[in-house]
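fwd from M.: "can u put these together and see what the complex looks like"

so here's what she sent:
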Amino acid sequence: MSGEKSTIDGLVEQKYQHGFVTDIESDTLPPGLSEDVIRVISARKNEPEWLLEWRLKAYASWLDMQQPDWAHLNIDAIDFQAISYFSAPKSDKDRPQSLDDVDPKLLETYDKLGVPLHERARLAGVAVDAVFDSVSVGTTFKAELMKAGVVFCSFSEAVKDHPELVQKYLGTVVPQRDNFFAALNSAVFTDGSFVFIPKGVRCPMELSTYFRINAAETGQFERTLIVAEEGSHVSYLEGCTAPMRDENQLHAAVVELVALEDANIKYSTVQNWYPGDENGLGGIYNFVTKRGDCRGPRSRISWTQVETGSAITWKYPSCILRGDDSVGEFYSVALTNNYQQADTGTKMIHIGRNTRSKVISKGISAGHGQNAYRGLVRMTPKAENARNYTQCDSMLIGKKCGAHTFPYIEVRNPSAKVEHEATTSRIGEDQLFYCLQRGISEEDAVSMIVDGFCKQVFKELPMEFAVEAKALLEVSLEGAVG
Amino acid sequence: MLKIKNLHANVAGKEILKGLNLELKAGEIHAIMGPNGAGKSTLGNVLAGREGYEVTRGEVIFNGKNLLELEPEERACEGVFLAFQYPVEIPGVNNTYFLRAALNAQRKYRGEAELDSVGFLRLVREKLEVLHIGDELLHRAVNEGFSGGEKKRNEIFQMAVLEPTLAILDETDSGLDIDALKTVAEGVNRLRSADRGMIVITHYQRLLDYIVPDKVHVLADGKLVATGGAELALKLEEQGYAWLEDGGIASLGVESAGQVLQP
């Protein structure tokens, strides 16, 4: 053996593979936040008056709010006046009409990320609404989706083309003043995705969006709204990578899901924002509010997330189980390496009768990573016969990392059943040696063991995504041992 | 094939092996017996390169190479296989997937083409048939929830697929009922071949009813204190290890290990 070098302690030295900057001139607002800035954003996007009012109301709320500090996170103070709140690729003026018109440099960026947009979309049958900085640049498969009556477009387009839908649902799941970061997002969000699946329609393909932060010092404030009408089905994939940068970048997205009677929404995320370097310098601050509302009876919302990136992750994709017999699910893998910190989990709010929820959370900590699971299960007085099952497992790689579990269980209905299981394990020297003795290298052994640990979650991901997630985990764990 | 000369090894700062000598030729099966705490399992772990087993003196030459200089995975790829006394569970990792990864890592090391899943499955079916093992082990996670017997059978199955040059069976018989023991022994016997050496570490003679060794060594207090044929195992069974200390070796007239291996 190579002595101390081969102890399971290292977990550092992983280089971010997607670290490069595309030089497209950005049309960026100077840093700072004020009512005027919000008016400029709204004007640049040619928004209707009601949306500007909505933003301003959010801004007014935000001014009264404090940044939350209850999470198990160590965060440097964020100067919200040092951030620029709008950045659009210059080609915005004459927007590309199809992928052929897209700036080749941009497509090249996607290629480097392993997302050859056109090919990938064609081969995999996935429609891609790519967000590059703040403005959508390409949308594919629109025609086929249109035939099915599905609306899948950028948020800005939705405001223009389907204002009644946006106005009807925006902020109904995550209100403007829901929390500090949601309020900020509501005030300054620049773009995002909008999905509408009409009654009885099963979306003919998986919908996928790739996000990418590019311009320096630009906060990214995405807004996503998915509405599934009665009896409809949709599976939505979201994945992101970001280029190398030293300054901390703020990301505060809001995602709202609405599932009406018998509707089914599956939302999958692979998150790989720049995590900072091995000394904890740089990296994305990711404060996300994701919530799904099972508004109708027998509706179902399922969140699956694989979180490997960001210096700081603050994220609790939640389900409000309002409709009787509705179902909420949360499957999560969160990995923290080097100096990454994650405080993530879910909230399952049971309101309707016979509502069910399932939470499977897998936290992996390596290096100096700190990983906290924070989950709320609330059974309200009306939630007759509601059930929850929570399984929360943590794996530690090395000796300097930490895993924490903060379960909150509130039961106000005696017929409700809540189960919570939690385990913490250290990746075993004996497991590693067993693999080595069969000829498998240390690095392959670690990723194999971690992959096995995450299997319950990976099997919930759509096929291509599962492969990607597995690869991402492997990349994120490179140099973890040895 | 394997030459161990004056091997000294520490575990947690304590000397466990104290000058062990052993020579194993291709095609031979050697049994190593001895009382608890004699260093039997330590020998297996030292040969496989487990962390925490520190060699302080001596050398191990395996097919002309200095084994002690190699990483554990390199030793495996060179053909050293350790059947674990306590096979390790790896939850969520499919047994077949694991074994294929292992085989392909070894093939790659040797410059052979990796097997695709079809070719691998063919090989696996073949081995299962020879060993009379059902295919239910294939679909489960590595050793997860396996009974003691299943775990040991799985070790033998892995050995059959990986086809090592040197197989070390560390108390593979411990905790097995007689049927499981027979299955394991039969598996080992089928893998007996002119170009493969095996070291069978055991506490009891029972296993040697089914696996007939070419030589039996007695390991006590970190050294081989006696070497003989299969009859030595029977004698030990009859008399117990205490008999060794009472000068039993002389009474049996077997060679002492020291004499055999000293130049």
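replying to her w this: Chain A has a mean pLDDT of 81.
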